[in-house]
Structures are given as structure tokens and as C-alpha cells.
Please model this.
Amino acid sequence: MIHQFGPAGQDSHERKLTLRSNGPILDVVAKPSSKFAGLNCKALIDTGASVNCIDNNRARKLGLIIIDYKIIQSASGQIKTPVYIGVLDIPELQISISGQFYGAELVGIEKIYHYLLGRPFLSDFIFSYNGPEGILHLAKPSNILTETTFDE
Amino acid sequence: MSMLSKEIDTFISKEAAFKNEHLGEWVIIKGDKVIGFFKDFQAAADRVFSDFETTPVLLRQIGFEPKTYPNVKFATA
Model:
């Protein structure tokens, strides 16, 4: 089964502009572990990110456990950042994943997302970005492969 | 002293031995004590959730993590 996401728009042109402006964003429910209640958050899918990240303020608000500190190379030098562990529910996919999330500072006035889901997240999914239609697709490989056979 | 300093020092002091016997596995360390080794992240995460709840604890993969990462900036509207 392929799940389709896209910004709420009246037509493909509006969706296209919204997706181009905001990026591929998912609605997720974040929590410290599966035993805790969740908090609604926004997550941006970023194929350019080698790690998954969370805004430090959001991590503290959620009470995520710190499991490491890592050195991040910035333009002004090296900085030490916490690494958190947490659970993300993606209601539209009806899945829950555990992961490590690098703390990052969300800069700017309007916060449009709290998580950045990079290649560690995408390593378990098939992801497509349909710019002209303003739609993104996310699927688990097992769901696709059961429908496809290849002959030599 | 920053949080997890003792755990990170413990990891560094034992890293060579870890690589010999547990390359690619995940290790949990609390203080100077090795809690356990785990074949995958999910198994290690379950242990952290069940045993530590809100207590900081070191969870690190052995042998595969770079020393530094490029900086990440969130975009804004």
C-alpha cells in the first residue's frame, strides 16, 4: 500500500506551490517512549540529511532521554550537541518507529516543523516527490514487493 | 562536567576491545558499567525505554560513527 501525502490545497497548482515552499512535511506524534502520551509535531523529510534531528526545545518539552553527545562541525567551529532517543508515530502510515535524533536549534520566527527526517529514516521507506502535482508518496518496501515480480 | 562524560570516557577506554568483539553492535553504558550489547538499535532502544525511562544513558553503535557531523540548520517559513 502506498500512502499519499500532500499539502492541503484546492488544486495541483496550489499544492505544488505549498510543497515547494514548505517542503515534504509529515504529521507525526512524538513521545519519549511508547508508554507516554504523545505530542503532535511536524516532520520535514530531508534526503540531504545524514542524521535525523529534533529541535532542542521540542526535545526538552517532550522529556526525551539523552543517549549521547556528538560533535557537530559548523562554520564557526565545532559544537557539542545532545542526541536523544524517542518514538515517532506516523498516524497516516499506522506505524511507530524508535530512533535517535540529533539536537538542533530551530532558528527563525515561525516554526513550521520540529523534526528533520534524514536518510536513517528513509532507509526503511520508498519515497517519491511529485513536484508538479504537489504530492509525496511514502511506502514500506514489503508492501510494494508483494505486488511485483521480475522475470529474467 | 557535561552529562554522560563518564559514560563517554568509559566507551573510549574500551572502544578497541568493543570493536574486536562487537563491531556494528549497539552498547549501553551507565557510569563505568557496560549494561549490554545489542545486535540492532531497536533491541537497545527497548532496553533503554524499559530500564532508564528518563535517566540519561549512553547508547552508541560500535565502530561505525564518524567523529564529527556536518552542521544542520532548520529552514524557516
About this structure: Chain A has one domain: 2-145. Chain A has four helices and ten strands. The radius of gyration of chain A is 17 Å. Residues 145-150 of chain A have pLDDT under 50 and may be disordered.
